[in-house]
Amino acid sequence: EKKIRCLASECPPAVLINNLDNQTPLHSLLEHRPGVGLVRHIVECGEDACSAISSSSPSSSLVAAWTKRRLSLTPPVERKDGENQLPLHVAIERYADADVISYLLCRYPKGKAVKGPSGYLPLHSAAMWGCVERVLRELIRGDNGAKLIEEVNDLGQTPLHVVFNPDEADPNNARRFAEKWYENKNSGDREDHTNTALDGDATIDGPPPNLLSPMEIFEIIVSRYYTYLRTP
Questions:
Q1: What is the DSSP letter of 128?
Q2: Is 18 in the same domain as 119?
């Protein structure tokens, strides 16, 4: 983690460069479930680089190099990868710590309404792959969040549909989620790691032990939507 911090600090513009899979360093980092401190550092380095390049003289070598390579100045949290995923999609599907997901939502609140592969919202991903309660409630918080419960993906499915219905592209997704939850439930370790003090750069191994069951996800979404419909 210290090496990543050092590299990003030494060359902040590198945080904005995509690899051959069109991933930013932030996308790649989130696949390894880092702590919120390291994620914050990468995001801030990227935002600082955007500001520095935007405010530089058009004749500067940095701007010239950026223009020549046709590189984007979109902040890292708003960038999609080659699979049409925001960092938020990756974080949810890789069971990132709740603090990391909260931070990404804070930096880019509109991200929860952005559709990814096959028209999946982050809420679709959370409903299908599972998440902890704090993450689910943040995704459906407020009127804007509640309205997302009505949104459909490219298969015409709302987030409620994908809780139990397998994805057409991978019919084993729903079963894997159920098996993962059942395995965690019976592991004897149900400690809520989202409330545990973690080193800001620490990584987390394995799915969270407090992963919501499919029925719990269903009940929370239905309850939130019912409240939304009854509120004047």
A1: H
A2: no
